[in-house]
Design goal:
Shape: elongated
Number of strands: 0
Largest sheet: none
Radius of gyration: 16 Å
Order of helices and strands: HHHHH
Distance between the termini: 42 Å
Number of domains: 1
Number of helices: 5
Helix content: 55-70%
Mean pLDDT: 80
């Protein structure tokens, strides 16, 4: 077997997304990094303000994911919810989940 660990890793990834639990994200870490990048790119913006906006957006996205979690298929959860990526984000996960759900709905019509 050339990749003996692949099924185990894939299986554990599927388990995280499909078991009903939404993985936790350190939104402060994600937002600090994002604010730092934005401050470097745009003049007139402050890291503190950008971080506050980011945290607020992340919290709202997390609440929406919790509210709609049962409406997403396990395939959509697996595709979109990836806690092990660099700086995971509820906003990104929610966007992906909503897009995947829309595609599923359109294909069903």
């Amino acid at each position: 077997m050339p990749f003996p660990f692949a099924p185990i890793l894939l299986g554990s990834h599927l388990l995280v997304a499909a078991t009903g639990g939404i993985p936790s994200v350190d939104i402060h870490k994600t937002c600090r990094a994002a604010a730092s990048v934005m401050t470097g790119l745009l003049s007139g913006t402050t890291a503190e303000h950008d971080q506050d906006v980011c945290v607020s957006s992340e919290q709202a996205a997390h609440e929406q994911i919790i509210k709609d979690w049962a409406t997403y298929s396990s395939a959509e959860r697996t595709q979109c919810v990836r806690p092990a990526v660099y700086l995971p984000s509820y906003v990104e996960w929610l966007t992906c989940l909503e897009m995947e759900k829309s595609v599923r709905t359109l294909r069903g019509q």
